[in-house]
Give the backbone structure.
Amino acid sequence: MCAASDNPFVRPQEPRFRPPRELTRERAREQMERLGEAIMHHDHCYYVLDDPVVSDGLYDRLLARLQELEQAWPELVLADSPTQRVSGSVAASLPEVEHVAPMLSLASSTDAEAVREFDARVRKGLDVEGVVYVAEPKFDGLSIEIVYRDGLFERAATRGDGTRGEDVTDNVRTIRSLPMRLLGDRDQAPTLLAVRGEVLIPLAGFHAMNRARLERGQDLFANPRNAAAGAIRQLDSAVAARRPLDVFFYDLLQSQGARAPATHWETLAWLRSMGLKVTDRIRRCDGVEEAIIYHSSLQSDRQDLPYEIDGVVIKVDRRDQQRALGARSRNPRWAIAHKFAPREEVTRVEDIALQVGRTGIIVPVALLTPVEVGGVTISRASLHNYEQVRDKDIRPGDTVRVHRAGDVIPYVVARVDDRVDSERPAPFEMPAACPVCGSHVERDGAYFVCTGGIACPAQLNGAIEHWASRHALDIEGLGTKTVRQLTEAGRVTDSVADLYRLQVEQLLPLELFGEVKARNLIDAIEASKKTTLGRFIYALGIRHVGEHVAEVLAREFGDLGALMDASEERLLEVKEVGPQVSHNVCEFFAERRNLRVVKELLALGVAPLAEQLGEQVFKGEKFVITGSLSGLSRPEISGLLERLGARVTSSVSAKTDFVIVGESPGSKATKARDLGVRILSEPELMELLRERGVGPGRVRGERD
Ligand code: IVH
């Protein structure tokens, strides 16, 4: 599509920009329009065609330029600007809406015979010898109706009961492969286009998301479909925006003001030409046997697809024939889902082992008699957590059904065993002590967690990475790879305290280290000894004690000894501390292994000191923070402002003194503008801090 080829910003060359204020309003408007068009073009190339023309860096600069101009001329911001994908406001609920046309469901079968019978019914119904079908992947996601009016994205709704669904427009708008404006001339666009597609999360993004959740100790998503459905039904579109959602279209629900093609095959091509994402894994089949063959070839390719599919949908190609066949109750007579056989097998549980994850969660794992499931031999399967083992009543020796989806860890679906209880070992119980370090095991909801925290070797890598992370002790040069090398080479064996015993000579033989890097790391470790109490508490990695709570505790108790001595009741008195946090803090310091490590750290010279309250330069002033910030984190900025006497609140009113806007600010920024509240970008906030005499050291959280 290079309709925008006279647009300088679609080319891979680096443009030169003048400061916004040197532009006339007219020039700015023109440039904003050009930038918007170019970014939409690049989004289409990247997210839909998978064929980017510009580097990520250049793309980011175009977007930053557009944001800069939009900030300078907020009244010129276009509704479909690429910067407006996140709404910025949180909805109270998802309103119900009526679909433009009913969203039917499909009859389905795993059996080829049932597909042949479907074909016989179709031919009989149409009174013809042969029928042309289109066979396409059956995406395993969430069905969605999307409406474009005069070429502009207007609304998205879930399927609901087929007639009415939930309005999820704000969340769907965050899907980057979804065009906000259809390609081609605005006046040629259909006046109304209602299409149906499937929202999904590709496997790579799904695994990355679950890895990150595992590291943060959050519950994992069971599968990409649940993760996608959860994102689409969010009340806060900023959450949806962080999920790697994608969308494929496969059905035209209705169009007005344009002539839709006569066949489904051409319809899909038409949708594609308007910029909508349509899979190219579709096949036009002369007769049902070709569609059945396509089913087996797609089934063998299933492993290699970047997203989950669970079968093939076979549709009559001619739309007049579709109409003639019509629908029976909720299912069209012109289509059928030919599902794949489930990837499940039956085998025996030899034993139940316990695995301690990086965050201390203890997961029961079934050790299986090896069995082949969908071409892969498996000998271990996750049992997830204690409750699931008890609910499914799995015990060693049981015969079970196991399931493997894509490259997700296989799991035990159910027991299929006819032995009576007296023939089986006692029900499964979780241990009272961590199988790796012997620390006391605590229950946290469905999970059992080792309280060994910073002292448990199974959690060592995770604990060190967290200790060194930017908002904890901020030790530069101690990322995942380096940490792994230090522990694998036995330089750090017991706990984070070992870091403070490292010497340059011990690092030199290691692959990742040269003289300079080794010296820098030792210096960075040394420098981290001088830290604030808040960072230190956060770095301990106590479950549910995030940065903000750590700051609150530091301010309340003033020194580490007082916090260590505090009872649960005392902790509960602290505003913003609930029963879970107070319990976890007490448990943490009650575990003697943790106490030993904390004592070692102090003896090695780590000195967490409470910040002295400086001058209250913002006393009584009210701040609101919106959008994502790149320098300091939100809790850091609010902690800092509060220490300087300010109040940080969540909603903008006429009483607000300052609104700090980060990237992709939401409606709060608009409201601030309307109310005439002073808006500060991150650099402007730093400038203000300097003006008020707050030094850079204090901003970084160092002691005065
Ligand atoms: S066509 C009237 N095509 O499968 C026909 N559906 O049980 C409308 N699905 O709820 C559906 N991939 O969410 C169609 N290529 C595809 C599909 C597809 C996935 C889903 C859809 C529907 C379910 C049918």
